[in-house]
Amino acid sequence: MPSSFNVESADGYERLMGRWSRKLAPMLINFAGLADGDRVLDVGCGTGSLAFTLAQTPGLREIAAIDYSPVFVEAAKGRNTDPRITIQQADACALPFEDNRFDRALSLLVLHFVPEAGKAVAEMARVVRPDGIVAAAVWDHYGGMSGMRMMWDTVVMLDENALPLRRRYCFQPMTRPGEMKQSFIAQGLADVEETSLLIRMDYLSFDDYWGPIAAGEGPLGKYVGGLEPGKRQAVDAAVRAAYEAGEPDGPRSFASVAWACRGRVA
């Protein structure tokens, strides 16, 4: 099942989201829990933020990671030096593992880009042993991503063609309050809990903030890359003005909230 996330390059993704994934990964791991000897699956590993954070726990027996994007798989493999970690290209909705293989399956910032997210949750539950844990986190796009919402809200003031794209961004699968919890319960998971996780996205400058989008990364980057030159110039200027907010260019910090959910395989 293809991801709806637009990938231009692994380095571009690192600037857009990978650096923030690394801040969120320890929080999801703490929420999901770990035990010595665990076999853990990372569903949608991207460039490896979660898998390599998991590897900092010496007692884990195995860390298997999959991603749909060959670009991400190649980048993560190139960074891997831990023999416990294996990385392969695979579909979150058709995991290439037998039933009950893992003690835990985790997914960080992935399910909201999977068109049939419930099927991915079901697959995670299938490959986890009874009493094992399935856990995931996704951004709260509508209410919790102030920095990204500022971009979208600025763009739609200049181009009504961006309105359906903003709606899609704000209400992607699993991003509404309680939506991921309902999906976990629907897939037969027990003792399901949902919470929110907070990090801050700290940027050095407007270029640090806008650069990955301007280069075409992610859903907004894909839209921006398709604009005719005049409109593109207007969008760049308007987003810069929103970022600077009347002050000189420089560091800015944005609160960013993710929904996190965990459940036990019955």
From TrEMBL:
Domain spans labelled Methyltransferase type: 41-135
InterPro entries, A to Z: Methyltransf_11, SAM-dependent_MTases_sf
A Pfam family assignment: Methyltransf_11
UniProt-listed Gene3D superfamilies: Vaccinia Virus protein VP39
GO biological process assignments: methylation
UniProt keyword Iron present: no
Key words, A-Z: Methyltransferase, Transferase, Ubiquinone
Annotated GO MF terms: S-adenosylmethionine-dependent methyltransferase activity
PANTHER family per UniProt: 2-METHOXY-6-POLYPRENYL-1,4-BENZOQUINOL METHYLASE, MITOCHONDRIAL, METHYLTRANSFERASE
Protein name: Class I SAM-dependent methyltransferase
Organism expressing this protein natively: Rhizobium pisi
